[in-house]
Amino acid sequence: MSRKVIVLSEVRDQTLRNVSFEAIAAGKVVAEGGEVVAVLLGHGVNSLTDQLFHYGADRVRVIDNDQLKTYTPDGFSQAFLAVLEEEKPEGIVIGHTALGKDLAPKIASRLQSGLISDVTDIEVAGGHIVFTRPIYSGKAFEKKIVTDGVTFVTIRPNNIAPLEADSTLTGEVAEVSVEIKDLRTIVKDVVRKASAGVDLSEAKVVVAGGRGVKSMDGFEPLKELATVLGGAVGASRGACDADYCDYSLQIGQTGKVITPDLYIACGISGAIQHLAGMSNSKVIVAINKDPEANIFKIADYGIVGDLFEVVPLLTEEFKKLKV
Ligand code: FAD
After folding, report:
1. Do 54 and 24 form a contact (C-beta atoms < 8 A)?
2. Distance of alpha carbon 89 from alpha carbon 31, whole angstroms
3. Rounded to 5 degrees, what are φ and ψ at 8?
4. What pLDDT is stored for residue 71 in this prediction?
5. How much is the pLDDT for 196?
6. How far apart are CA 29 and CA 309, in angstroms?
7. 210 CB under 6 A from ligand 1?
8. Pocket flag, ligand 1, residue 306 (CB < 6 Å)
9. What is the Cβ-side half-sphere exposure of residue 141, based on CA atoms within 13 angstroms?
10. Segment 3-49, tens digit of pLDDT
């Protein structure tokens, strides 16, 4: 059965986040040959529509409104619901990001639909679209199908590959006009805590530090390695609690859940709550001076040693490969 699917595009700093393209790819699977309509909400975002076509959107609906300059639950839900009202889709795909985690349940409750959240894989099997999602903090996976109503899912960033971009693709862009009112929150300013650079939740490479880095300065070698690899720096809660870094870097059960291609854990013991945030990384490298550290149980490659010796050596070797 082919479906019309709406996918929400996410914009940060006037740039489309990668998860927007992953959502289009997921939307294509859910659509089963039907139409995928990308929705772009924001202010001054009209120039971004081309990219959505390049990654496979069939049509784009835009709401360009200064009330949507930054995310607010009221503003975005009013705008998104206005598009849904016009389009009446049979499928909806949103990124399982901070924004998506806030918006999707609100929309689902307004539509009185189900919601499969945090999907890591989508396949067509036995005549159904089967969605895989982690449960018990990533210790097991469940497979779900939708039997009735709108197929509404959020997808975990970095798990569903975007389609290959084709710059010859184009399509129809139509604005939706909506009056956004009764905002209960107004964002006056956005202050970035983490330093500029690769976004931790979308990074392909993450170099993470734990209590073993011993100080704020101890993160410097990790930052250098991350820079050479074009990645982001993350941390365990141990490091955050010790004030070595900001909590925005925390990975784990009560931090960010990430799935990079390469995760390098430096001076992290591998507590279950930390594993909940990174155990689905594609390749895990652990550097720890304790050969019995739990992190080695899930690591693909383990280096027993002092991180202050090992990390600079890795950085130097990767630098040579780049030359
Ligand atoms: P430690 O356990 O102290 O490990 C430090 C490691 O560094 C050791 O293995 C040591 O051998 C190694 N080391 C020391 N010096 C060196 C060196 N020079 N070179 C190499 N290795 C060295 N934790 C999270 O990370 N994320 C969460 O989201 C999270 N949520 C939690 C939620 C709850 C409800 C609870 C109760 C706990 C949570 N925790 C979380 C905390 C978690 O249980 C651990 O306490 C924490 O992950 C430990 O951090 P760590 O591995 O950095 O520190």
Report:
1. no
2. 10
3. -90, 130
4. 96
5. 58
6. 47
7. yes
8. yes
9. 12
10. 999 999 999 989 999 999 999 999 999 999 999 999 999 999 999 99
Q: Please state, as a whole number, how many other Cβ atoms lie within 10 Å of the Cβ of residue 279.
A: 18
Averaged confidence pLDDT in the chain? 95
d(CA 206, CA 208): 6
- The segments of the chain whose pLDDT lies below 50 read none
pTM, full prediction: 0.84
- Nearest-atom number in ligand 1 for the CA of 210 is 52
Q: What separation in Å is there between the alpha carbon of 211 and the centre of ligand 1? A: 6
Question: Phi first, then psi: what are they for 112, rounded to 5°?
Answer: 55, 45
Which residue's alpha carbon is nearest to atom 11 within ligand 1? 290
Centroid of ligand 1 to alpha carbon of 272 (angstroms): 9
136 contacts 103 by C-beta, under 8 angstroms: no
Exposure of 270 in the CB half-sphere (CA atoms within 13 A)? 21
Distance CA 166, CA 169 (A): 6
Strands 205-209 and 262-266: parallel
Residue 194: what pLDDT?
A: 58
Distance 295 CA to ligand 1 centre (A): 10
Q: What percent of the chain has pLDDT over 90?
A: 91
Which ligand 1 atom sits closest to the C-alpha of 308? 18
Residue 234 structure tokens: 């993350």
What pLDDT is stored for residue 290 in this prediction? Answer: 98
Q: Report the alpha-carbon angle 241-246-295, nearest 5.
A: 60
